[in-house]
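Subject: Sanity check before I submit

Could someone independently write out the structure tokens for this chain? I want to compare against mine line by line before I put it in a report. The sequence has 460 residues.
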Amino acid sequence: MQIRKMMILLCAMVLVLAACSSGSNSSNNTGNNKGTNASTNTGATETQGNAAGNNAEEVNSTPEMDFDLGGKTIKIVSWWDMTIPEDNPDNIQRKKNLDALMEKHNFKVEYVAIDYGEYQQKVTASLLAGEPIGDIVRLGKTYTVPTLVKQDLLWPVDEYTKNPRAFNQKVTNEYYTYEGKGYGFSEGQANLVQGIFYNRTLMNQLGAKALQEYVNEDNWNWETFIQVAKEANKDTNNDGKLDTWGLANASLIDHALYSNNTGLTKGDKQNLEDPATLDALNFVSRLATEQVGRPTEGGDWTEPGQFFRQGNTLMYAGALWELGGFQTDMPDYELGFIPFPKGPNATTYHSAEALFQALTIPKSVKNPEQLLYIWEKINDIDSMYDYPDQGWYETLFKNEDDINNAKMVAPNMIVLDHNTFPNLKFYDFVGELNSGVSVSTVVEKYKSTFQAAIDEVFGS
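---
Independent answer below. Compare away.
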């Protein structure tokens, strides 16, 4: 086991970490909230045997197929280069599988990377014109389900993605579904991990209770979170001004929603009056009215992260892909990770993605079953890892508790869909909550606006 661990660590050291949400192993896959993360294209289950979902699941493996693609070049389009990197044994095997498949079925592969800033416009225009920019195209859920699917622009793929070693079952059967069909797929089994980064060094200097103890006691909830944050708001030099703070973030709407297992929308309906959503909104309102977080100094969306980097703020709520930057910029501090605290409607800790993305096949591409067969056979491997993103976690973290916390939240990722609706007035809504307007007033004001925005996309 020790030798196996050493192999994993040595392999992990050569991984190129990206700020996205799951291309091959990390937070680089994202379509994340800033458009850089890659770990979002996955959805691991708690029962999988290892990173590829090994066990008796080969029963769903597609039988060998015999076809000749006549030298066709299969174009695989994303906002990063999806060339398989030969950086660990898993990817080396995937590359060998691809080479063998290209020879057997007579095709080539071209990976097309398009800048994220122009990606949506380019790929959408190509689909609408009936001239897709690629054969396998990465699409963000916010503009795909239901908008592009309703226009019959994409193949349903759920018939061909039943092998859990090669396809993430949640992506096809839960995250990318419309009217009972699945339209997205991913080989990645990892998820975007979100939670709380905390400064262990500052925690010890303040003499605060170890935050991990709250998790161990199953007592890490919204109440204890607010208590911890308030207790860290201190004037340590007695000059009449706070010089340490408990929480870097002024607004935590997404975290409040996913940690209470809810969302602002649910399918084609607004969800503001759901009790779990009301709890989350009241939590956000309380953070604002009780001035729990560190007050803004007029900065932009990066300000909370900059506050945390100063070393005088105990907690920061964010995504795991951010941790590498913190570690680089804070070499004198020991940082830890715990889940975002559970809300009253949650029985376990969660993570979330609000700009989820996955691979799709345009309807004008012929023989989608052949493309999905190729994708399956590339990725149907015996993984060397015991769980998704293991190599990345063991590179990021030195503390076993931090690794276990990331492993605990990852399988419970929720996809928040409010960004699907351009006219939802999300930021106006959150702005009023954070300015102290009562939850009941805000809900009453915006519930019809939310529903109208949803109806624009789904149809009334």
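---
OP: Matches mine. For the report I'm noting this point. The domain at 194-353 is CATH 3.40.190.10 (D-Maltodextrin-Binding Protein; domain 2).
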